Description:
Bound molecules: zinc ion
Number of domains: 3
Shape: globular
Number of strands: 22
Structural class: alpha/beta
Number of helices: 12
Amino acid sequence: MNHLLERIYAVAPDWFQTAALNAFGWKIRHERFNADYDRWQRVFAENERRSWSDLRDEQDERLRSLVAHAFEKVPHYREMMQGRGLAPGDIRGAADLPKLPVLTKDILRTRLGALVARDVRASSLRKGNSSGTTGSPVTVLWDRRVEVANNAAHWRARRWAGFAFGDSYVSLLGRTIIPIGRTRPPYWLWNSAWRQLLISSFHLKEENLPLYLEAMADRQVRFLDAYPSTGFVLARFLVESGRTFPLKAVVLSSETLLPFQRETIERAFACPVFDIYSLAERVMFAGECDRHEGLHAQPEFGVLETVDERGEPVPAGSPGRVVATGLQNYGMPLIRYEVGDVSSIMQEPCACGMALPRMAPVTTKAEDIVVTPEGRFISSSTLTHPFKPMVNVEKSQIVQERPDRVTVKIVRRPAYTDADTHTLVAALAERLGPSVKIDVEFVDDIPRGPSGKYRWVISKVPLRFGVSAEANLYE
Ligand SMILES: [Zn+2]
């Protein structure tokens, strides 16, 4: 929606918002669930029974076709490849990708025009922004076929959770569907085209949670689609009030999923949690199967690589920067795009029988990792342990400005005492080591970022991969 429409929407009455949402919902449904969508689902089902060598051959073929198109039609790639003396024939498959440089967010920001294919009108492309975690979002354009492929890939990942289009579900995501200033219910809207109850993440206050649960019961929702942080708020409320709200599955995306969040959410909703990894840049998609041992990447949609500082592949099993090549976007091809996340590729075949490649279960934003002065990487999930017994902490956040200092922001509950601070700092010090000073700062609230996402760890210290032998991300 454009800005003016958003402003009208924000002050309109409930019935109007519901009508507008539903009109929009039916329009999108019509656009995204077409014959191409059905074809994708048939291809996916078939590919889940094929061998990796077959899938890899098919992926290499898609990649060759994309590279040929990029060389022919996209000024940025033509200049870059000619500058390196490369022709499309030099990239025969994913194994040849390291011949090309990594595409950084900076390049995307500064060379947007040169990345659009000359045979499309930029105005015919869809536009999306990725929430740059450091406050500078990037714009990505894509053509209509990406819209359908992206939707198909998303519903494939949901299918692995047993969740099909048409099942009633509740969404607790970052969109401002209800004006932020509203102080009376309803804080939700029903999108009948999708059988989706949209609940506002910006009104997640304790007194509103019982109302949310009532609305969910009224609509007989069977699935929850949330961020780990928003799903956790609702789950913790259920657990603390000694209740459960049984669902068939919870699908989580967009933030690092921390182990205590998964545990609490599974308990509260009496069902398994499925982590889904999708990117606003539409370059790759991955999701958990019912084994929950890592996430299966979707090779039809994108090529996944994990690389070091210089863009060279790191060995399977070691952490590296996630770099992805979107195979569907011919309007603005993103080849070896550096996503800003950290993961590792798992080599062992999955017990579920699918040969789709897997990435490690801990997928962390690079900015979510604390780096000590000795160069140790400490992932956010490791740092959650000291917080487990902290029942008097309402919310928390860890901010690292320099290698030798972290600030822990805490929103206290009424029973919080100095003893809590001592216990917490001692437990954190055990993990961070003596070279890191820990400051505690009490705050009234910890707001979500502009995209509605919540980041538990914010580190401004840069990561260096492949330089420190002690680097131990998954300790
Ligand atoms: Zn599997």
